[in-house]
Every structure is written in structure tokens, then in C-alpha cells.
Amino acid sequence: MPLDFERFDYLSFDVYGTLIDWETGIVQSLRPILERHQLHWSDDQILDAFAATESVAQRPPYSTYREVLTSVLKQIGEQHGFTPEADELAAFSGSVPDWPAFPDSAEALQTLSQHFSLAVITNCDDDLFAESNRKLGVAFDVVVTAEQAGVYKPDLRPFHMTIERIGGDSSRLLHVAQSMFHDHEPAKELDLTTVWINRRHNKSGLGATPPASAVPDLELPDLRSFAALFG
């Protein structure tokens, strides 16, 4: 059954992986560090290592996302026989503002903002998201970060906070995201309607996210295709 978009007032978005091309950013930031330590990995190897270590680093108690990225690089080093230098840890943990937006994100968000209020539910710090948002070209009506929630998705708390901030009616909220692990599984636990922006539709593997499964209500290959549904 086609989605009845008229019943939604808010679209909530994951940011990193959906609006920001974090896989490109991760690879571009990690590769030169790894190569300095004689690890000449493919993109998939880098992303697999990131996925395995980021989810561990994000477990409670809460750490900032800069601290998460620091932990990721330290874990990779421990597992592969090197100790990252201080400048390498600083470079990787501070790389988020350099991660590029997907080419379709800004224009699609402009189109969607004419039809819905826009929210973000992001696994990031307030200041890092603010830097990334400069690439997206819209002012979001609701912003919920991991820093505000004190926990990272797939924990349900960021979703509960978002629902509270839009007035408490989850039926008015449509969640739009790429990650099954961080977004679709927890959203479906709350019976939210979801759209899967399957950025990896033409790639093998899971990329920067751990394995997970959920059944979204709609699947599209990119954000441009979603925005095109609204003219």
C-alpha cells in the first residue's frame, strides 16, 4: 500500500550516512593514517573495521563523538599492531566537518522543507553537527543530537526526545535514514513509519554500519528520488 504522506507533519533524518557521505569521509580520513602504519586496505576493509569498532565505542557510558572517533582509531591500532600518534588521533577525531554532503542532499532538503517540518536525529555532538549542517543549506525545526540525549542510536532515547519535541504524536513523524542498525531497527521498535534511503544499493557489503534487519515502509536509492515524490 502506498504511503499516505499527507498524514505526516515532520520528517526526521539521520545525518551521517543519509545526508552526509560519512563513508567517503571515513575512508579519506583513515586511509592516510593506516598507510603510515603499513595497512594498505581497501575501502571495504576500512569501513568494516570502522563499523566493528564504532558500535563498541558508542556503548554507555556516553562519550562525545570526538572521543568515539579517538577510541575507534585506538581500537584499530590495538587490533592491528600499531599505536596511533597524537596528531593522528587529533586529525581523525576532528575530521567530521570535512566529511562531504551527498550531492543531492541540499536540494532535496529544500524541496522537502516546502512540504514538511524537518528534524534530525544524529549520532553526533552539537558543534560537529552545526559544522556539517552548513553543507546542507536548511535550518532544521528540531535537532536532537547524541550529546543532548546522552546516548547514541540505536538506543531509543533520541527517538523519544524527538517525538516529545514535535508534540508527542509519533504518527505525525516519518523517519528517513540509511542505516538499518542505527535507525530502522529502533524506529520500528517504536512503530514509526520509515523510508530507507539505500545509499549502498549498488554496492556489496554493509559499509560503515553493523549488520541489522528491519522492514522499512518505502525504499529509495537516494534522497533525490524521495524529494521527487513531492514535485
Structure description:
By secondary structure, the chain is α/β, with parallel strands linked by helices. The protein has two domains: 5-21 and 100-230, HAD superfamily/HAD-like (Rossmann fold, 3-Layer(aba) Sandwich); 23-98, DNA polymerase, domain 1 (Orthogonal Bundle). The relative contact order is 0.19. α6 (126-133) links the parallel β2 and β3. The protein has helices at residues 22-36, 43-57, 65-80, 86-93, 105-113, 126-133, 146-149, 157-165, 180-189, 223-227, and strands spanning 10-13, 117-122, 142-145, 173-177, 193-197, 218-220. It has a six-stranded parallel β-sheet, with helices on both faces. 43% of the residues lie in helices and 12% in strands. α2 (43-57) packs across α3.
List low-pLDDT spans. Answer: none
CATH architecture of the largest domain: 3-Layer(aba) Sandwich
- How many angstroms separate the termini? 20 Å
CATH-defined superfamily of the largest domain: HAD superfamily/HAD-like
Rg, nearest Å: 17 Å
| DSSP summary, beta strand count | 6
Order of helices and strands: EHHHHHEHEHHEHEEH
Coarse morphology: globular
In total, how many domains does the architecture comprise? 2
Helix content: 40-55%
CATH class of the largest domain: Alpha Beta
Structural class: alpha/beta
What average pLDDT do the residues reach? 95
